[in-house]
Amino acid sequence: MKSFAVFALLAAANCVCAQDKMEWFTHDKFGMFVHWGPYSVLAGEWKGQRTPAGDEAEWIMQRFNIPVKDYREMAHTLNPVKFDANAYAKLARAAGMKYLVLTAKHHDGFAMYDSKVSDYNIVKWTPFRRDIVKELSEACKREGIRFCVYYSHREDWDDPNGYGNHWDYDPAKKDFDKYLREKSLPQLRELLTNYGPLGLIWFDRGIDTTAQAKQFINLVHELQPKCLINGRVGNYAHELLGDYQNMNDNGMPTGGLDEYWETPQTLNGTWGYSKFDEQWKTPANVIQRMVEIVSKGGNYLLNIGPKADGTIPAPSVAVMEQVGAWMQKNGESIYGTSACPVGQFPWGRCTVKGGNMYLHAFQKPADGVLWVGGLKNEAASAHLLQAPGQKLEVVRQDGVTGVRVPAQGWDAASTVVVLVVKGKPEAEPELMTQGSDSPFHLTGIRGETSGQAMKRFNRDGSFHIGRWTKPEDQVRWNLVVSQPGKYHLRVRYAARPEWAGRKFVVELGGQRLEKTVEATGDWYQYKAFDLGVVTLAAKGAMPVVIRPAAAGPENLMYFESLTLEPITVSGRLGRLD
Ligand code: JFZ
Hints:
Strand content: 25-35%
Number of domains: 3
CATH architecture of the largest domain: Alpha-Beta Barrel
Bound molecules: 4-nitrophenyl 6-deoxy-alpha-L-galactopyranoside
Number of strands: 32
Strand order of the largest sheet: 7-6-5-4-1-10-9-8
Distance between the termini: 68 Å
Structural class: alpha+beta
Shape: globular
């Protein structure tokens, strides 16, 4: 066999396909975040000064510009004699969590494992002398929890060449590449080599260049090809380089995203332990937020901030255990489900798996019916998840399916009703109607994508269509025209210089426009372009499609929206340009 064929086979064997890699992540949905380090000793206070309410206690060194000398002195006192790794793994399991992400090194530069790269770690620098990462990875394995690590790969307030310490070190004298070469990458190598298979590496705070980010990505792929990489490995203002997108902390996107994503959330107002922050979320808050995230296709990473002695704050344990009790009964409606195709409802949210629609009722509907507007499928039956033998009445009114709910059996957080439908749950196509003289604003997030066209999240909180390269990758809207007439057609997109020149097509009302992509600047720099005048000749339904004109090597563009602005509508003047 020729060498290139052997190479191709080997490459294929080593290539862990994206979808396969993500399988556990998209099934498991719910993980535990653990923020723990020397900042837990300070617990939100330094020389009598408290970190402000809602401030993140793990940022205390930066908040009060604590000199490296003083912070290191304090770090010597970290001695979590009450740490029991089994208790952490058992709590995660009891909460219904399937993966655990531990801060192996946060921004203060202190390693919670036996690092040979730097003595500034839990084994060499403290009387505790035990390897937290080692003990916790082993405990997670015993409890069937996938072990993962957080690593702050850019920010390091201890190292003179790390990012972020402007109070001890002169930023102008930093050699950041030296920091990457001599601390950050070698420590990542230690974590990927010495602690068994890792589910994912949770990088944080991005990094300046794609080349720098690729050093971390390549090292993970080299040592643990199945290990996932989160979105914060790369520059937040650039294209996603990780396997999945991170929402902003405590962030909640709109529904309908096509890419993998995860929202991290604090249980109170801080990631690291603060003795002042008692603003704990209730179990119902947590459950409803988890349902909301999963109903939109995301994962939920919920945080605990252990104390300096290694114990987990009692209120955290209480909330986690109550969430776990709900998960014990309702986990089927979370694990292995996917986003609801018909959006959200006034009474709650919906997750789907096969022909089951899990209607999560956060409150009892006034008319006693959980209406599921926009559903295309015929309903087969319905029951309470907790009482499969007790069939509930499926009702239909003006073309909308609903389930009449029982008076009893309600859960304060979320009551799960299973609506069984015929086939895979699908949404009726959304109709874009037109107000009087109002323009049609056709955003990517409200379109119907097909092929590889993907609804994506930008770190600056907006959305675009990306990953589309060939004519089959399309976005479609179903207009209902009420004012036939002439309209300005405009498009708004971002396009990097290397995408300029690509051709795209807009088809509507029997008209076909073929246009050329123009560069707009850097990644998410959107600009509007006038595509000319079109005629919406008649009232009624009119599909609009935008797509690449031909197959191309990469993104056609980051498409944001099309706008149809009336020039003259039948019988009345629209807005004149
Ligand atoms: C970062 C850390 O600075 C913080 O200490 C904690 O570890 C958190 C999970 O991650 O904080 C961020 C990072 C990114 C955003 C917000 C907080 N963001 O993009 O909105």
